[in-house]
Description:
The protein is α+β, with helices and mostly antiparallel strands. The protein has helices at about 5-25, 25-60, 65-105, and strands at about 110-125, 130, 145-150, 150-160, 165-170, 175-180, 185-190, 200-210, 220-225, 235-245, 250-255, 265-270.
Amino acid sequence: MSPQRFDQARPFATLAIVVLAWVFVPYVVKAFTRATFFEFQAPFAAAQSYVQDLQEYWGQRSRSKEELLEAGRSLAHLNSAYEFSLQEKEHLRVELLRLENLLKLPPLPTHRFEPARVARRDFSGWWQRLVIRKGRNYGITVGAPVVFVGGVVGRVVEVYAYTSVVDLVSSPTFRVAAAAEGDSRPISYQGGINDSLKAPRGTIEFVPADIFAHKGQPRRLVTSGLGGVFPPGLTLGDIVQLEPSTDGLFKSGEVRLDPRLSALTEVTVLVPINPEEF
């Protein structure tokens, strides 16, 4: 081989040696290296998120008094609606407690709500994830459900000192037991291959043959509560397409997810009060 060709092939040879060396590195070393790199990188992502919050704050300061008064009136209306919802929730809680005592049922697992700010979004064809600005310092645990006003956001898959990684409901690696609204039979839900520029979607399998839905008449898909991770009744999305499976016994289909998933700035983590019960 001529010296010129050798110089051209040297970078590729070096890359091949590095890749082979990394393949034979023990898994423990790989995991430690990845966690260390993430902990080193996390403060930069959090700092960028804080800068964005500061920019939004000064942007709001520049608004006129009329805009602020209108926003205040809208906020007052929302507060009134939320106060009514809280009263209704308290009534339902008391009724649930009465029925539990009457039927001698064990209490349902309880969670505490931990709001968290989104620091970074990581969307690709292989996964769709969020990084939030809370971790072990706030008691976040792996597997904790993450929700927002539109329903399920995803599940916590990695927890670090000050940040956590959330696997979105639209990610292909996300699976959960679901059910059609008004029906208790379990359905298998999984995220799909999603383009970050399009509305997020997921897929369902093992749908009972007597359930029907289409784009003109979608049906809401909710969590079933099986598995004990997600509470039952949380919105996953809308079933917009169903087709018979190859076995002819069930159906499979497509679920339209909330388009706000790709633009979330605030989420809520449902941290179990007694993690040993899960």
